[in-house]
Design a protein that fits this description.
The complex is a heterodimer. The longest helix of chain A is centred in the N-terminal third of the chain and has 36 residues. By secondary structure, chain A is mainly alpha-helical. In chain A, α5 runs parallel beside α13, α7 packs across α8 and α7 packs parallel to α11. In chain A, strands 1-2 form a two-stranded antiparallel ribbon. Chain B is an all-alpha fold. Chain B contains 13 helices and no strands. Classes of the chains: A mainly alpha, B mainly alpha. At the A-B interface, α6, α7, α8, α10 and α11 of A face α6, α11 and α13 of B.
Amino acid sequence: MHILAFLIRRTLQAVIVMFVISIIGFSIQGNLGDPLRELVGQSVSEAERQALREQLGLNDPFFVQYFRFLGNAVQGDLGTSYFFKRPALDVIMDKFPATFELVLGAVFIFLSLSIPAGIYCAIHRDSWLTRIIMTGSIIGISVPVFLTAILLVWLFGVELGWLPAFGRGDTYELPWGWETGFLTLDGLSHLILPSVALSSIMLPLFIRLIRAEMMETMGTDYVRFARAKGLSTARVRYVHAFRNTLLPVVTVGGLMIGTLIAYTILTETVFQWPGMGFLFLEAVNRVDTPLIIAYIIVVGLIFVVVNTIVDFIYTLINPMVKLPGAKA
Amino acid sequence: MINWRTLFKRFMSDPVAVAAGGVLLILVLMAVFAPLLAPQNPYDLMQLDIMDSELPPVWTGDGDPRYLLGTDTQGRGVLSTIMYGTGISLIIGIGAVVVQGILGVTLGLIAGYKGGWIDSFLMRLADIQMSLSTLMIAIIVLALFQAAFDANIYADYAIFMLILIIGMAEWPKFARTVRSSVLGERKKEYVDAARVIGLPPRKVMWGHILPNTLTPVLVISTIQVAEAIMTEAALSFLGLGMPVDRPSLGSLIRSGFEFVFSGQYWITLYPALVLIALVLALNLLGDWLRDVLNPKLRRGDD
């Protein structure tokens, strides 16, 4: 029952955030560009213009227009892209798999490297390898992601010619219309450089975070008691201490989702990766209002869903957190 | 409170800190005195000649001795544009942190001192703001700004917009730090003493509590300037920041990025190196300050 209460509360919060995003989307629609000009061009008389305004409902009161917008949005209708002449949501969803697979590749890379590196640096505090990793991580934090990306393209794509540096390569269409690059060798090789670039900014942050948290848990009483009880060093380190290191990592990981989406825009620009971020920048340059709104709403939705899931996982793995409303 | 003399002594005995400080000093001086030092004025169209465009650096043999680091596609000397561009990056970085500091310190003081619903409201607001990424907010706001106004208006106001957006999006970091210091200070006797002699809350907050919370503020400020400069560079690289005729380091990198692959690497490489040096120096100094002044503050918590 308490989990249910928690779920309801979180869902309510998510709805409020989405409500704010929808207000923003709606006010953009009303103020950015002129829908009439996009539809009929300049050469229409003022009377016809007014008739069309009336017909499209542009003269209706604010709330009527807003609820019409909301009703359409809930049914998946976010308007028609001026440039593609197709529903904006369809255009975005076509590009979603590319961005999703890029993020998945980057998350895989930085998790599989930062966890061992962070644990190692926490356990062997003064070894020379720790010094190298920690020095490397502060340099890594200071190099913007787009510079790493340009360097990778130049070195591996142009000079050495080892890996493809532009686009997604061959994709394979799954039965439900999802274009995946995971199933072809060409698609996978195209994925390597962009996901390394995208993970390069998260990696040093996570190494430093895991190291700091691990060092703190290693000094706590319960870890010392576990050792005093006679448990093996390995068990104390990897089961007792590491499990509690994971908590802040999950929280920070959840907070990072917005940043990660922002960095996909940068990465996709350098690698001309045909994802949502690349599409968004093109839409901005073309003042394609419906597409801009659709992007903001889709990104907002991803953000809200991920944060809710992260919060939920956090309460599940943390033995100390009581769900709000639960009896003490 | 900070003992400046001890701080200086420790600074001089740490080679990494001295090196970072040295690099930062050189870059700041270079930016401040750019109008005197730079071989050309890259904003003066009269001095530009399209015939000089895309010249390589002098030591390659094909360069022109007037342009030490070569020229970009518009015939501007790369060295001169870097000198001016570093200045713009620094102005935006420092300006944004001043905005963050003013907002964050004020709200943090109020939250910590007043407590109650004001405190919980402000901290909840800070949580929400922190969970939205600064870069993402900035990209969306600037994209809308750019789509809504024409290019000339955009170019005129870009620098203010960047300072305001990066400034307003990052206030929670200062607010949280100041608030937790205030909570620690509030119960101390000197605060009670100040209150008992009848000073108004405003004076107790600003005159008595604030000076004792400034150490962590100094530590975050350094790292925040580095982050603001990085954010600005990313925005300019996307074409949402400074326009090409008043370039920051980020817009310089953007203007040369397409030419890297056809061999004109210098247009991008040198601004990129300066950007990395600037951010790295600030980050190293920030880390050093944190270790020296407040070992409890850790990066990664934020």
